[in-house]
Each structure stands twice: as structure tokens, then as C-alpha cells.
Design brief:
The chain has one domain (about 15-265). About 75% of the residues lie in helices and about 0% in strands. The chain has helices at about 15-25, 35-45, 50-75, 80-105, 110-130, 145-155, 165-175, 180-205, 215-245, 245-265.
């Protein structure tokens, strides 16, 4: 089904570059890409633009491709990992489909994002301190039980709340079920492939019509930038986890959450 952009292209090249880079950096980090995209769109003044909404969905596919490129040889050539990813995807797939309209209508506002960011930040700080008491041994993801995969999948459902962060929810879910921080992060990356592909595909299918050649160029630029940025972000994140932990991300989430509260007060509530 072709796409339709109801308004003319109003996004500048700078907007395209900034949005793609923010998406690539934040999508796989436990800091809420949705929250950052909402805030960035508001700051750029194009949060009501139809093309911007389509663009933000489309560039997620570039971030997904980055995970495929990074982990195809290590994990994705092992057939057993696909079944575990499918089991983990099921809860969010079912609940996301059933609750999509409710979530879009009632939860996408500054207040929800701010509270989610702050609460998630506190949990990450607590989790980081708890890790110092003893880090679990790395578990080969292909040997992980289906029960653990399903457990992580239910945690992923929390990320349907804007600001929670899919990465944070799945990493916390994995670690609370005995995975090391490295294994939990890697399973979170892999689980993003079916989850984000389904979510992005569902959003894109809702559009009808055509996209101009200029808009396709902007989509292509954003796709490539999100892909390249996500590769560097994931490599940096894994390296950082090995040396430090989650506390820094927790404090960052709290700071961004406070910023959202400021915007909520200024706007008097909603984002829409």
C-alpha cells in the first residue's frame, strides 16, 4: 500500500540529520528513544507535521538493520534464537495490537513521559548498585530458556508507555531473571528486530497515497544516518557496560524527565 503525506514537505535537512542521529543513538540505549523523539520534534517545531511522523517511523528500520549487521553472524545464524525471540515478542505483539489506539490517544503527553523517565532512571540506579553485590555469569543466549524469553517479553510490554524505553524494560527484565548485564543488553538488541519491524510496519501501512521525490531523498538520508549512528551507539553501549554500569543512564533519564516536566508546565499538559 503506497504512502500519503497530507501536507507538503516542511522538514529541513538539518531536521532530518538531527532526528536520524537522535534515533540512532537512543533507540538501543535505556533512555527512551520515544521520549527523545517527542522532545526533539517539539523543539524543532514540527511535531504536528505528517511527514515528520512518517520519517520518524521509517528511520527506525535503519536502526533495526544496524542490529542485523552487528549480530547476524554471532546470533542470527543460530535457528534456536529465532524461536526465543518469537516467544519474547508475543506479549508486546498481542497487547500492542489491542491497546495501540488507547496508548496513542491517552499516553503520549509530557506528564507520562516525564514520570516514566524519572521512575525508570531510579530503577536503573538501584539496579546498578545491586549489581555490585555480584554479577551473574554470562549465559549463552541460544541456551536461554523459553520461560526467560517470555518473562522478558512481558517486561517489554511496559515500553508501550512512552518514556519507559524498550531497551530499559527488556534489559531490566533480563537481569531480574538472572541474565548478566551484557547478555540482557544483547538479547534486548535482538528482540528489537521483530518488535520494531512490526511496530514500524503497522504504522506505515496506515498511510495511503504517494511521497514526493524530495521526501524519498530525506527518508533515504535519515535511514542511512540512523543505521550508521545505531552501529556506533550499540558498540559504545556494550563497551560502557563492561567498564561502568547503568547509573549514568539513570541520572540522565532523571534529568531529561525533569526537562519534560518543565515543558509540561509550560504547555499546560499535552503534546498533541
Amino acid at each position: 500500500m503506497p504512502l500519503q503525506i497530507k501536507t507538503p514537505c516542511t522538514v529541513s535537512l538539518l531536521d532530518v540529520i538531527l532526528t536520524a542521529i537522535v534515533e540512532g543513538i537512543t533507540e538501543f540505549l535505556p533512555i527512551s528513544s520515544t521520549g527523545h523523539m517527542i522532545l526533539l520534534s517539539y523543539l524543532l517545531g514540527n511535531h504536528e507535521d505528517e511527514f515528520t511522523k512518517t520519517f520518524e517511523i521509517f528511520i527506525q528500520l535503519g536502526a533495526i538493520l544496524a542490529i542485523v549487521a552487528l549480530y547476524a553472524r554471532r546470533f542470527l545464524l543460530k535457528p534456536e534464537i529465532y524461536l526465543k525471540l518469537f516467544v519474547a515478542f508475543l506479549p508486546s505483539g498481542v497487547f500492542g495490537f489491542l491497546l495501540y489506539k488507547i496508548i496513542k490517544s491517552y499516553l503520549f503527553n509530557h506528564w507520562v513521559v516525564a514520570v516514566s523517565l524519572i521512575v525508570g532512571g531510579v530503577i536503573l540506579i538501584w539496579l546498578d548498585k545491586r549489581l555490585h553485590l555480584g554479577e551473574p555469569n554470562d549465559e549463552e543466549l541460544s541456551n536461554m530458556s523459553y520461560k526467560k524469553a517470555l518473562y522478558i517479553g512481558f517486561f517489554q510490554c511496559l515500553s508501550m508507555i512512552p518514556g519507559v524505553s524498550r531497551a530499559a524494560a527488556t534489559i531490566i527484565g533480563g537481569m531480574s531473571n538472572g541474565l548478566s548485564k551484557k547478555s540482557a543488553a544483547e538479547f534486548s538488541f535482538l528482540l528489537a528486530i521483530p518488535t520494531m519491524a512490526a511496530a514500524s510496519g503497522y504504522d506505515l501501512l496506515k498511510f495511503e497515497g504517494t511521497i514526493s521525490s524530495e521526501q524519498w531523498q530525506q527518508l533515504a538520508i535519515g535511514f542511512i544516518l540512523a543505521f550508521v549512528t545505531a552501529i556506533f551507539a550499540v558498540k559504545w553501549f556494550v563497551s560502557l557496560l563492561n567498564r561502568h554500569g547503568f547509573a549514568g543512564f539513570g541520572y540522565y533519564r532523571i534529568a531529561v524527565g525533569v526537562l519534560f516536566l518543565v515543558f509540561a508546565v509550560i504547555k499546560g499538559g499535552g503534546l498533541n
